[in-house]
Amino acid sequence: MEVTAYKTDMEFFVDMQRCIGCKACEMACAECETNGHQSMIHVNYVERAVSIQTTVQVCMHCDDPVCARVCPADAISKDDFGVVHSANTARCIGCSNCVMACPFGVPIKEEKYDMMMKCNMCYDRTSAGKKPMCATVCPSQALFYGTREEISRMRPNSTPVNTFIFGQQTVTTKVNIMMPKGSTHLKVH
Amino acid sequence: MHTSLNKKALLVALVVTLACVVISFYGSRKLQNFDPALIAYLFGTLFALFGGIYRYCVWLQRPPTWMYFRRTWQFVFSGSFFVHLYYLAADSVKNLLFQRFIYPRGKKRWIAHFLLATGCMAAFAITIPLTLGWINFTLDPATALDPGTTRLYYANFFGFQVMSFKLGSVMAFLIFHALTWCSWLVIAGAVFFMVRRMTNAGLIATQTFEGDLLPLILLIIISVTGLGLNYSYAFMKGMAYDFMAVTHAISVILFLVWIPFGKFFHIIQRPAQIGAHIYKKEGMKRGMAVCPHTGQAFATQLHVDDLKTVTQQLGFDFTLENGSSHLDFSPEGKRSLLAKAHLQARQEGGNLFG
User: Fold this and answer.
1) Distances B2 to A78, A90, A171, B5, B250 between C-alpha atoms, Å
2) Is A122 part of any domain?
3) Which of B299, B340, B354 lies nearest to residue A46, judging by beta carbons?
4) Do residues B143 and B151 lie in contact, with contact meaning Cβ atoms separated by under 8 Å?
5) Of all helices (H) and strands (E), which one includes residue A165?
6) Could you give the CA distance from residue B143 to residue B320 in angstroms, rounded to a whole number?
7) Residues paired with A173 in a beta bridge
8) Would you call A165 exposed, middle or buried from its count of C-beta atoms within 10 A (0-12, 13-18, 19+)?
9) Mean pLDDT for all residues in chain B
10) A6, A43, A51, A55, best to mutate vs chain B, most B CBs in 10 Å
11) Helix boundaries (H) for B77-177
12) Beta-strand (E) ranges in chain B?
């Protein structure tokens, strides 16, 4: 973690309306070395009874991560690049506080390991200057990893937004969501 | 970073350390059974105790940790006390003594961790009471003066005789070399993890030298020099004994002083896992929370309610306009809500893509 080639001009841009539910990202995610070859990305139907719409969710890497703050074992940490890392295997006590408190529903409690695991933006790749696995395979660019210039060229009618409102709580994140041009935030409820 | 002194923690740590000094003073029969050669180790041990208790108390004061700590003891001491006590003991044997939770993460990992942990815990159980003068060995005066009989050795705890064995017996060999066996266990485990940390790409990307590699290096130095102390006089005519003794002392004291701050603190933290198990078990008895979106049970209602309190204490407020909370939704429900809100925003923007 000390010597890295992490590219600070590269950012993650998510557009769940573009998700076609192909699950290529799930397969790619399982290639990530830092997950121990276990897929951590979420692809699920939004309301299966009325729609075939799927949604894709990576860790949003919050500026003030609730998961880390509610962890009773100090197992989750955020590094200098703003990447919120998966639970420290020696410390995590498998209590699921992070799983239940994450406003985006990201961390996964692996019951068999009695431990939490989550997306850490393919740190083995991003720390070496590469793109996260999921973003390299997404055919519809629901998941895109690149510079702000690239995304503004590709999506001239959209604005990246990283502010989310959950009732009384405003959460800002490292990962962006592509919203209609001029948007400043996404109100979830 | 919060650097001010935590008075509560300081007070508890001071009281416990002083109590240990008093117990050790009288336990060693007013230092009669105390081994002065271990004086440096004594200060290292006392510092580790003070630092360990201090950090533990600071840690406990964090809202989520305090919630689990409070709830665990509340459940243990309410209702069926002995049922809980049995569960506590059984779960401790399974997960603390045998670290069973590591087995599904990897069979070899579990074996290596079991060897490493067993070696460390056995070494603690031997060296700490020896250093504090709680345990000492004496030669039976009657057999010692009679050249015709096998000499008898006594092991004493707090000055009370607890067992005896004959010198030269198998028992004597096993007891006198107990730390040798521990060293081999630690070396086997630590070398396995060292190799793993140098070859696993995921670990290479996320590990730090001081957080992950240095603890293993330190354990290997301690064990190798510890073995060297024995093998130096047993097989090498005392060669390099001083070097071994000094290196061993320095590495052990570094290890002790570091327990409260570094990776080794997980040894002290781990019992919290047992608390989390009791919390979940008791929560399930009290009822599950159902996600308003998926309509399925996803966690215990106790957990959801406690998390609302803990997040509030930490300065987060997920209360919604209708009085309910974002935390009432399951992880899948939360993901779907986000997608629905996003869809609505896109529809209002007049274009699904852009």
Assistant:
1) 16, 24, 23, 9, 30
2) yes
3) B340
4) yes
5) strand A158-166
6) 81
7) A62
8) middle
9) 93
10) A55
11) 81-92, 107-131, 141-145, 170-176
12) 135-139, 152-157, 160-166, 288-290, 297-300
- Reading the block at residue B348, the tokens are 């209002």
Residue with tokens 């991003």: A126
B208 and A2: CB-CB below 8 Å?
yes
Number of residues written out for chain A: 189
CATH of the domain at A109: 3.30.70.20
Domain range for A93:
11-187
Torsion angle defined by CA atoms of residues A39, A80, B215 and B250, in that order, rounded to the nearest 10 degrees = 180
The CA-atom distances, in angstroms, between A47 and each of A17, A53, B330, B333, B340 are 14, 7, 14, 10, 9
Domain count, chain A: 1
Task: Report yes or no on A63 lying in a domain.
Answer: yes
The tokens describing A85, both together, are: 């890392």
In-domain check, residue A3: no
Taking the CA atoms of B295, B299, B301 and B306 in sequence, report the sign of the dihedral they define: negative
Chain B residues close to A183, C-beta within 8 Å: 345, 349
pLDDT in tens, A9-63: 999 999 999 999 999 999 999 998 888 889 999 999 988 888 888 999 999 999 9
Q: How far is A72 from B272, CA to CA, in rounded Å? A: 9
- pLDDT tens digit string along B9-24? 999 999 999 999 999 9
- pLDDT 10s per residue in chain B (354 long)? 456 889 999 999 999 999 999 999 998 899 888 988 899 999 999 999 999 999 999 999 999 999 999 999 999 888 788 988 999 999 999 999 999 999 999 999 999 999 999 999 999 999 999 999 999 888 888 887 887 788 888 999 998 999 999 988 999 999 999 999 999 999 999 999 999 999 999 999 999 999 999 999 999 999 999 999 999 988 999 899 999 999 999 999 999 999 998 899 999 999 999 999 999 999 999 999 999 999 999 999 999 999 999 999 999 999 999 999 999 999 999 999 999 999 999 999 988 887
DSSP reduced 3-state for A47: coil
A-interface mutation test, from B70, B95, B264, B316, most A Cβ less than 10 A away = B316
CB-based contact A103:A66 (threshold 8 Å): yes
Query: Would you state the structure tokens that stand for residue B312, as one six-digit string?
Result: 């509030």
Helix H or strand E encompassing B233:
helix B214-235
